[in-house]
Amino acid sequence: MREINKNITVPNALSVFRILLIPPFVFYFLAESWRMAGVVLIASGLSDLVDGYIARKFNQITELGKMLDPLADKLTQAAVAVCMAISEPVLLPFLAVFIVKESVMIVAACVLIQKKKRPSAAKWYGKVATTMFYVSFAIIYVLKGFFHYENMLLTITLLSATVGMMVYAFIRYFQIFWNTLRSQDPKDEMDLELKARRTITHKKG
To answer: The domain that contains 94 carries what CATH number?
Structure first.
């Protein structure tokens, strides 16, 4: 039981909270309720910043959290990018870059798990890319929702900078993926089936 309960942490709860915020954001965005959509997005971004700090500060880092946190990021970013592309078709290239990056990273993580290797936890450059993502969209929607101001040049500039950071993060993560895939170091091994069997044995004992 102890093995299961250790995954019930504040950081993991915040990651789940971010996932639960996605439907309200999409609803408010498509209803053109820009202020509420912005509030939901800001809440999501703040929770993303806080969960990592809490996990490190209070030693609440778990294997589940290492997978749940980036999953929440990817789902949130995907929802925002799709909504943006629907609202502004000129931003479709940004959405295309995002889809390619995230799809490749998801496939890479699945390959590592299948090979019984440990997927990489979030790194600083990934967090910076995520922060830039939230800040860019927050600026765009604060201006649009609260001040009724739209500037396509500003929007493209902010999103271009964000895409640049995403590409950099992708390259760094791919390097980690490649090194982990070829690694023989025990610290890079992760057998989820064996861990599950040990958990069941521990509960029976």
So the answer is: 1.20.120
